[in-house]
Design brief:
mainly alpha, 8 strands, globular
Length: 587
């Protein structure tokens, strides 16, 4: 860390000078300034000095793509499960394993292999389909080499990890032993939940907001055996603490002068039993909790935007709970995984990841696009709905999917003019469904990433038509939702309780009809599975509108919606004028 600090010192000082002199942001102001304001100053500076000479204007989208050039590829790889990091354990079955050590090795093996170290671009040979087999073999040998290096250095890595985590977490566990019973998002979970062009601070804020409902959801599934054992241990440890504390109150000399065992005083046993008591209490659920998993999962999905199809209508089952806790693990489990990663990482690098080599080469060739002023980027991060849109999540049907529907031999990759001659990989065709799935992100990741980026950057106007159409549909759904909510309130006032339920049924049936916005998009944000209460479409659009309002006052998403309504109204009036239908009923 010290060597890295010295190596980056010059760049750090240059960055400080850029912020203070060019962007006019003082070190004190930097602690509290919003990122949107930093972006706006950088965009203004581009207009004055042309920092990027090949492009006249920079946008928030360009800036995010440059910052997250590499991360966007990793997000796509984990989203499409192209990295084979599963281990098939006896009696347990396959388990995904991604500790920090393996995460670092994947970054070195994959990203450093495909990216040019000196330029913001993918290496030229990666984009040539004729070299795919040779590149896959080179990547396979790279995995083998790193596996051998990790195995040889495993004793030193184990010692380093032990010291690192000891000094990092020793004080935390000493002051709060119950923290071992707490949970946090695993490294694999973080990559599955992160969205394209989502900067680190925005992503951390979203996960922090999801922590409380996630903890509540998991705690509703009580393990009776674990809770019973924890209560028993807490009772025994608490009894010892109570008795020893009472003795010390009677005679304070007992603390240091009374030895219960050889060289072990009362004070030492008080500390030990206190730690055991705190640990046991961390695994005892609250007896007053109410089992409402649907509502809790809706609160979780509201922030995580992650709700696989297999979870729909099954959030009350232990199967979904187990899949969820694979992403949201106990801290002590993550701690143990990091210890064993010294031995498991070489195994995955040698036996599992080499099987992904050809798929990785094909992915980087087919999903790499050259964007002027930005460089090579993952095509998902461009929010290009014409190439990767998923109609099930509100995106337009992609051109690649349409090509797959018409040609059994396989849709091509990104066009040579955009990707530098990448060409298509013919093995990915075989019908409409296969072509669609290959060129689309899983679970509507691109569509959700686009909406999240728009909510966090309300002043950004998407240049590609698919994104604007998606927002127009969202605005339409929101307006319809508000109108039906008012109808529900009026019906409730008119008919009492029956009217309320009737209004709710009308709202749900109306929103699931031909509004042009599939409910799958919004149910993935708000948990719109069968049995979920309330209007999930309304909740989703409220979330985006609220997210924009937090960053741009009364503007942002609401102002974009108003602009879209004015544009649609003007287009309708113009059409009525051209057709001569100006007599009162047109628009």
């Amino acid at each position: 860390q010290l060597v890295r600090l010295l190596y980056d010192l010059n760049n750090t000082l240059e960055m400080r000078r850029f912020y203070t002199e060019d962007l006019k942001i003082s070190p004190d102001e930097l602690q509290t300034i919003d990122w949107v304001e930093v972006q706006s100053r950088l965009i203004e500076l581009q207009q004055e000095r042309q920092l990027c000479r090949v492009k006249a204007d920079l946008t928030a989208h360009d800036i995010a793509n440059r910052i997250m050039r590499r991360e966007n590829y990793l997000i796509a790889l984990y989203n499409k499960d192209l990295l084979k990091i599963e281990i098939d354990f006896p009696l347990i079955g396959p388990k995904v394993f991604l500790p920090k050590l393996l995460e670092w090795n994947i970054s070195r093996c994959v990203l450093d292999f495909f990216f040019d170290a000196r330029n913001p671009k993918v290496r030229d040979r990666v984009l040539q389909a004729s070299k795919a087999d040779a590149l896959a073999e080179q990547l396979r040998r790279r995995f083998f080499f790193m596996a051998a290096v990790n195995l040889v250095l495993s004793p030193f890595i184990l010692m380093f990890l032990f010291l690192f985590f000891f000094f990092r977490y020793a004080d935390e566990f000493r002051s709060s032993p119950s923290a071992l019973g707490a949970r946090r998002w695993s490294p694999y979970g973080r990559w599955k939940l992160r969205e394209f062009n989502e900067l680190e601070h925005v992503f951390n804020r979203r996960l922090n907001l999801s922590y409380a409902p996630s903890q509540k959801y998991v705690s509703r599934f009580m393990n009776e055996m674990l809770s019973t054992v924890s209560r028993f241990i807490a009772f025994i440890a608490g009894s010892f603490v109570a008795v020893l504390s009472l003795l010390s109150l009677v005679d304070e000399n007992v603390l240091l002068n009374l030895f219960i065992s050889t060289n072990r005083s009362v004070l030492w046993y008080l500390g030990v039993f206190g730690v055991v008591l705190a640990l046991a209490r961390g695994f005892i659920p609250d007896e007053n909790l109410v089992f409402e998993p649907e509502k809790l999962m809706a609160a979780v999905v509201f922030h995580t935007h992650y709700f696989p199809q297999s979870w729909r209508g099954r959030v009350h089952t232990f199967h979904v709970r187990d899949e969820f806790t694979a992403l949201f693990k106990y801290k002590v489990v993550l701690f143990l995984e990091e210890r064993f990663s010294v031995f498991i990482t070489p195994y995955i690098l040698w036996f599992a990841l080499p099987k992904s080599s050809r798929q990785l080469v094909d992915f980087f060739r087919e999903f790499t696009v050259w964007e002027e002023g930005v460089g090579h980027v993952c095509s998902f991060a461009l929010f290009d709905f014409s190439k990767h849109g998923d109609a099930n999540y509100g995106g337009a049907e992609s051109e690649a999917a349409a090509a797959g529907a018409g040609t059994a031999g396989g849709a091509g990759g990104i066009s040579p003019s955009r990707s530098g001659g990448g060409g298509g990989h013919g093995g990915h065709g075989g019908g409409a469904l296969k072509g669609m799935k290959h060129f689309q992100a899983e679970e509507g990741k691109m569509e959700k990433s686009f909406l999240n980026f728009q909510a966090n950057n309300p002043a950004w106007v998407p240049a590609r038509g698919g994104g604007r159409e998606l927002i127009r549909r969202l605005v339409s759904v929101r307006e319809t939702s508000d109108a039906m909510e008012r109808s529900q309130q009026n019906a409730s006032a008119l008919f009492g309780g029956d009217g309320g339920s009737a209004g709710a049924g009308l709202m749900n049936s109306g929103l699931s009809s031909n509004q042009g916005m599939p409910s799958a998009l919004f149910s993935s944000f708000t948990g719109g599975a069968r049995g979920f209460p309330g209007d999930e479409l309304s909740m989703a659009s409220s979330a985006f509108r609220r997210g924009s309002a937090n960053r741009a006052g009364s503007h942002g998403f609401g102002s974009f919606a108003a602009a879209e309504r004015r544009r649609n109204g003007a287009a309708a009036a113009s059409s009525a004028t051209r057709t001569g239908g100006g007599g009162g009923g047109g628009g």
